[in-house]
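A.,

Following up on our hallway conversation. Structure tokens first:
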């Protein structure tokens, strides 16, 4: 009798997978419809890019922002005061794109735990225009990018716009594993959240909004000592009663995982942050671990019917939801090549989730931090701290 109850619980991830399939189909069915655009809406834009060092493919990344089919915009960078790498990059951009306005700020002028957010605070204050597009330095875009991400802001009820991102220049096993993790795990969670509660967050590689909407929650100064600034910006704008729009439109991020260890550290940092910000949602991930539950079901009730039903169901549903998102939704032509990595990703993600319960700190940019009451607290400055 116990084994039959256990099989029922073990099948819960399959229900989640079906919800993912329905949510993805519904989102992309609507998103693929032509967007009604306001033809005259093309206000000047300030593109804000906080930087720390030089990313892989930095010139091509920034050059893509200089090739925008958009009437008026500036690119505003904020770098560390002692950053010597950015000067030749900016000089080359200015030489090749003399018509493009590019400004560089040195340092945030603030003391904050999250230096990236402190830089954004300064850039928002010194931006020339009301409409701002916040973008990571490893992002590469097409010429229609600004028109796409600013268009929804023509509607008065829209407070922010964000969009999907896909990796480019994948070269290593780790890069391919990260890609399939995005398509089969991260984006499914986002689409289920959209189905159940709407978009109440933003994705860091692109956030289009206005200085007024940011000022509505106190601006970046209000979150400069907190983790997950992109998630918080979307949430705090949504809390003001404005819609956060998730576009089907995709941008590219340059794959830069130097090693499998780098991927583990980044993923662990993200999931520990989520455990602190949304503890019940983090615990609920137990019911999305289809591979682990399938193995457990076969171990508890090793009959041919269970093996065929659970293993077959797992493979079919995981492939279907990934194909729906990556192939049909995001038009990624080569996603089939990475499908065989889904079980590998699921195993890695499950281990990282389990390990996250044993972590009380995160490592970010070479330093360790606790997350206490939603704030980043450097481990070294915490009395009686120990890892």
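Then the amino acids I'd put at each of the 387 positions:
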């Amino acid at each position: 009798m116990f084994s039959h109850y256990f099989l029922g619980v073990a099948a819960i991830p399959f229900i989640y997978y079906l919800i993912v399939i329905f949510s993805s189909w519904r989102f992309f069915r609507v998103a693929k419809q032509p967007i009604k655009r306001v033809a005259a809406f093309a206000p000047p834009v300030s593109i804000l890019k906080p930087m720390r060092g030089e990313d892989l493919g930095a010139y091509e990344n920034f050059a893509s922002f200089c090739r925008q089919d958009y009437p008026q915009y500036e690119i505003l960078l904020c770098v560390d005061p002692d950053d010597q790498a950015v000067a030749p990059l900016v000089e080359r951009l200015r030489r090749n794109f003399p018509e493009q306005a590019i400004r560089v700020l040195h340092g945030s002028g603030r003391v904050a735990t999250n230096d990236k957010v402190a830089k954004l605070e300064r850039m928002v204050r010194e931006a020339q225009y009301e409409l701002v597009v916040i973008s990571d330095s490893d992002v590469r875009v097409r010429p229609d990018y600004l028109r796409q991400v600013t268009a929804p802001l023509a509607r008065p009820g829209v407070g922010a716009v964000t969009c999907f991102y896909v990796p480019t220049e994948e070269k290593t096993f780790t890069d391919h594993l990260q890609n399939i993790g995005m398509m089969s795990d991260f984006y499914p969670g986002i689409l289920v959240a959209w189905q159940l509660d709407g978009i109440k967050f933003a994705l860091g590689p692109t956030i289009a909004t206005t200085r007024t909407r940011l000022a509505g929650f106190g601006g970046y100064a209000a979150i400069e000592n907190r983790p997950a600034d992109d998630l918080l910006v979307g949430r705090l704008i949504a809390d003001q009663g404005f819609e956060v729009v998730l576009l089907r439109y995709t941008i590219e991020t340059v794959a830069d995982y130097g090693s499998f260890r780098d991927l583990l550290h980044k993923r662990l940092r993200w999931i520990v942050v989520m455990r602190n910000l949304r503890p019940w949602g983090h615990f609920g991930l137990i019911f999305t671990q289809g591979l682990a539950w399938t193995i457990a079901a076969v171990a508890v009730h090793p009959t041919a019917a269970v093996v065929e039903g659970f293993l077959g169901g797992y493979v079919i549903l995981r492939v279907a939801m990934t194909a729906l998102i990556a192939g049909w939704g995001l038009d990624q032509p080569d996603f089939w090549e990475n499908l065989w990595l889904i079980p590998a990703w699921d195993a890695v993600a499950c281990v990282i989730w389990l390990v996250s319960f044993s972590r009380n700190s995160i490592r970010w940019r070479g330093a360790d931090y606790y997350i206490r009451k939603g704030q980043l607290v450097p481990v070294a400055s915490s009395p009686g701290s120990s890892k």
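The chain has a mean pLDDT of 91. Curious whether your intuition agrees with the design.

B.
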